[in-house]
UniProtKB/TrEMBL annotation:
UniProt keyword Zinc-finger, yes or no: no
Listed InterPro entries: Cro/C1-type_HTH, Lambda_DNA-bd_dom_sf, Toxin_antidote_HigA
Protein name: HigA family addiction module antitoxin
PANTHER family for this protein: ANTITOXIN HIGA-1 (PTHR36924:SF1)
Domain of life: Bacteria
Keywords: DNA-binding
Domain HTH cro/C1-type: residue ranges: 22-66
Residues in coiled coil: none
Pfam hit, one: HTH_3
Length: 94
């Protein structure tokens, strides 16, 4: 499966959805703390399953879409790190 180059953090995408609304207003609507939303919008925290469900309800989007964005972002970030060489299982006995 091809990997997207440097996928955006879900918070970046969320910024587009809430454009024209204050962080305080959106946080209040979602029933979360303003700081929690701000950290998400600035890529300082991950998007949780709970947040994905809140966004699904508020924005009429899919929770799976939001979690998929987080997954793609996390995988891309992990692939940028130096990783140990791990042999496939069939080579373990060799």
């Amino acid at each position: 499966m091809p990997t997207q180059f440097n996928p955006p953090h879900p918070g970046e995408v969320l910024q587009e959805y809430i454009e024209g609304h204050s962080v305080s207003e959106v946080a209040r609507h979602l029933g979360i703390d303003r700081t929690t939303l701000s950290r998400l919008l600035h890529g300082k925290s991950d998007l949780s399953a709970d947040m994905a469900l809140r966004l699904e309800a508020a924005l009429r989007t899919s929770a799976s879409m939001w979690l998929g964005m987080q997954r793609d972002y996390d995988l891309w970030q992990a692939r940028q790190q130096k990783r140990p060489t791990i042999k496939p299982f069939e080579q373990l006995a060799a």
